[in-house]
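Let's sit down with a protein and look at its sequence and fold side by side. Go ahead whenever you are ready, and we will take it from there.
>
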Amino acid sequence: MNVWQHARVSERIRLVIFDCDGVLVDSERIAVRVLTTMGPELGWPLTEAEIISRFIGRDARAMADQVTERLGPGTAEPWLARFRELHAEFVDAGLTVVDGIREALAAVAALGLPTCVASSGGHAKMRHTLGRTGLYDTFAGRIFSAQDDPEVTVGKPAPDLFLHAARAMGTDPAACVVVEDSRPGILAARAAGMRSFGYAGGITPAAWLEGPDTVVFDDMRKLPGLLVSPA
């Protein structure tokens, strides 16, 4: 018998919103490798710490703005094109799911909780990464993009993406929880009036995720227990 089938979910939770990169698929490490590889080629060498601080959790528009500011007009599109090219290559060479996420998703489903994905990445990128790891069908029809969805005018750390997901799913923001691994994502959840679970098992330091209405955890297998009301 599934141990989660008879567990009692917190009465305040009606929707679980998952980030994609670094929460469902272990692609943030790939993004760091891509940017450390291509940065020197295009005139902006970056350390891992700089990449995490500047780019992780942000959308392509935010990256383009920073590249233009640093390297000048006309440099953003070649940068983004090279990023897309290398990212696809690295994903095909060895993308994996985040450790424990399959077990966590099965348990959340057994709890009867609706889920969706809300990511800074574009739909094509998510079709690639989620499809490559066998997770796309789990969320098909419930995937939202800060980069591509016209309802989102400003990406994380603004609340637009998560509010868009909540509206589309017919759920009050106060009844949503967000599973995030980046500082911009956690800030976006707070700005949207949503509680968050900050996953610190990836590349973002746990201290960057801490703060109001946020529970920081380091093992995806612990997530279902965090959604269940105390006995």
